[in-house]
Design a protein that fits this description.
Strand content: 25-35%
Largest sheet: 9 strands, mixed
Number of domains: 2
Radius of gyration: 20 Å
Order of helices and strands: EEEEEEEEEEHHEHEEHEHEEHHE
CATH architecture of the largest domain: 3-Layer(aba) Sandwich
Structural class: alpha/beta
Number of strands: 17
Distance between the termini: 11 Å
Strand order of the largest sheet: 2-1-17-16-14-3-12-13-15
CATH topology of the largest domain: QueA-like
Helix content: 10-25%
Number of helices: 7
Length: 349
């Protein structure tokens, strides 16, 4: 990444291309197949025809929790709290929006239901706060009972009933994320059945996406950026599925950048992955050599974001730049509720 700056990953995006709602049907979105400088416009429903028997799709089964709360300080000032992660039943790391940053010891009343105390700053840049619930309040239970679904900042409407369903994957089962693994939102039960019938295998891991995924790169040189940490767990069954796919000559296809981050964090030089739970701060930029993943299904990412840097590393920086130019010209829909890409791994830069 030597010499690369955030401006190398910028592009002009017409605001009307930022999807505010999902497609009427999960698999009804568009799919841009990117193979070097070859771009093919497809529908997401075409995906099974682009795979072959023996391939392995690796999904992230994290579930988004209701992590957004509105409340007030003891002084009466209005606040908004977004949980970054719940550490245990009574402790969490959170973003807090307020007219003045709360000091350690400040009590906050959330959703007119329970109180938390601010312990201090947290995060690599102090951008988060450590909080602890007062009394016996269980943060997992409070989130489910009183929290709001945390839609991304570029979606203008508050979470509605439809978002409760469509901002979760159909296979979500491990609560802990505060942002959805959005590449997986395109899969419905009918497509998963079709894939299985075609001999395409599936495996599941868990990476809890944090609010840090939306944190901007605050330094000009990306070599100086400190990546946020995320928790992941790779079951033994998933590691075995990767090994069996490699042995049979199949391809490992990550469904989303979160699955890719977990696989590459646990990856070995021979392409296998080590099962278990860990934290990852892996920052994938052009020049990175991928150990495990052969193909990537992903949505379109924000300008200057670490995820745009990741896909540029995977498919080639110039290829991705040209693909995004093509997608804008063809009026693809961008970001979490937008369209998808199937990326072929490239050795180009």
């Amino acid at each position: 990444m030597s010499g690369l700056t955030v401006d190398d990953f910028d592009f002009p995006l017409p605001p009307e291309l930022i999807a505010q709602h999902p497609a009427p049907e999960r698999s009804g979105s568009r799919l841009l197949h990117v193979d070097g400088q070859r771009f093919v416009d497809r529908q997401f429903s075409d995906l099974p025809g682009l795979l072959r028997a023996g391939d392995l799709l690796v999904f992230n089964d994290t579930r988004v929790i209701k992590a957004r709360f509105f409340g007030k300080k003891e002084s009466g000032g209005q606040i908004e709290v977004l949980l970054e992660r719940i550490i245990d039943d009574t402790r969490a790391i959170a973003q807090i929006r307020a007219s003045k940053a709360p000091k350690p010891g400040t009590r906050l009343m959330l959703a007119e239901a329970f109180e938390v105390i601010v312990s201090g700053r947290a995060g690599a840049h102090g951008e988060f706060f450590a909080i602890q619930s007062v009394g016996r309040a269980n943060l997992w239970e409070m989130a489910e009972a009183h929290g709001k679904l945390p839609l991304p900042p570029y979606i203008a409407h508050p979470a509605a009933d439809a978002d409760e369903t469509r901002y979760q994957t159909v296979y979500a089962r491990a609560p802990g994320a505060v942002a959805a693994p959005t590449a997986g939102l395109h899969f419905d039960e009918a497509m998963l059945t079709t894939l299985r019938q075609q001999g395409i295998n599936t495996a599941f891991l868990t990476l809890h996406v944090g609010a840090g995924t939306y944190q901007p790169v605050r330094v000009e040189s990306i070599a100086k950026h400190t990546m946020h940490s995320e928790r992941y767990a790779i079951p033994a069954a998933a590691a075995e599925a990767v090994a069996e796919t490699l042995a049979a000559g199949g391809r490992i296809i990550a469904v989303g950048t979160t699955s890719l981050r977990a696989l590459e964090s646990a990856g070995n030089a021979d392409g296998s992955v080590t099962p278990g739970a860990a934290e990852t701060t892996i920052f994938i930029t052009p020049g990175y050599r991928f150990k495990v993943v052969d193909r990537l299904i992903t949505n379109f990412h924000l300008p200057k974001s670490t995820l745009l840097m990741l896909v540029s590393a995977f498919a080639g920086q110039h290829n991705i730049s040209a693909a995004y130019t093509h997608a804008i010209a063809q009026r693809y829909r961008f970001f979490s509720y937008g369209d998808a890409m199937l990326l072929e791994k490239s050795n180009a830069v």
